[in-house]
């Protein structure tokens, strides 16, 4: 993928007009992952594919998802309960969660037993907070980001209250500095130090949903651990998007949904990570405070239906219910594509795609670096440094016009999404988006701003 970077550097540093469509075509011809686009269905508008830059909200449907789901429906139709044990495609339902473990582990940088596909993001977060947020009189604070995704905020506040604590005094929210949009790593580290041994939990999102900022997960994790706190990450916008090394970084737990960059179907099955240091001793695994159910029981003896819970090894002990096969299979279909493409290749292409989009946006006559955005103007609040962002760029508009401009993009077949009060998010997904998609989106945006 170095060809993409070299080409971008070349046009960035030359006198050529970067906005000519030929550059997009040339970049597409250098893209070694271009064949993956054909693996996806694109919604149509007036007979042609829409320009879909919304994979950070809901990933597109892989064509093979339909085939795999139809196979499962067929097994249900023809074998019913037998499908749990005897499955014509070699995917017995009783252990189907195992199908995705290795791929998920690779994507998040974990050992296979540290991850499991289960439940949904927020409800999984609740389950993990039961185990990993155990405040004491001394250590009870949660260091958290201001303007976090509402669901995470609600979940954390509710746990504070469940422990009889006042959320206002328990949640310490790190904010961007006055006049800045993103949070400085140093400010996060300083806040952690300042609250020291009163901190029970440090919990951030890997990639911030509104600004697109990718946090320095390695530094934040290591600093939080050095003061004795537990560290959890919400990877909703990070998984399948940016490089993750959860095991190596020493993260205690993480949660994610998989319908965004992982294309697992709307509301599809989510996933969790629990570091092996939390579970590798049998005794330790037994003593965890945890919400328990039969699917977290050791599979060897699960069907003996005994009176005592004997936990599975690793993260699987946190499973509660049996796996929803149809959404698990949908995730499996998409993960096959991630295995084939490789996260390193995807990230390299993603950096180029988003870099190209930024280059085009910054050349727009409507782009401003000022924070005070006027009618017909926009600025970019996502960090410009490629190490501090994933695929998404957050364009900030004047709040009176943002919704209107986003509507106009849709009218012209360009789909990003709006986040109130001021942001349109555009996220080219490296599995299926092209440089020509990016070119088209920016061209349409410019036209809309010229016009209105
Ligand atoms: C998308 C997203 C969620 C979604 O939560 P669900 O439980 O899957 O509905 C939660 N947190 C963050 C940060 C998100 O971006």
TrEMBL record:
GO terms under cellular component: cytoplasm
UniProt modified residues of type N6-(pyridoxal phosphate)lysine: 260
Family: Belongs to the kynureninase family.
Pfam families, per the entry: KYNU_C (PF22580)
Listed GO MF terms: kynureninase activity; pyridoxal phosphate binding
Catalytic activity: 3-hydroxy-L-kynurenine + H2O = 3-hydroxyanthranilate + L-alanine + H(+); L-kynurenine + H2O = anthranilate + L-alanine + H(+)
EC number in record: 3.7.1.3
Gene: BNA5
Name of this protein: Kynureninase
SUPFAM superfamilies: PLP-dependent transferases
Record NCBIfam families: kynureninase
Subunit: Homodimer.
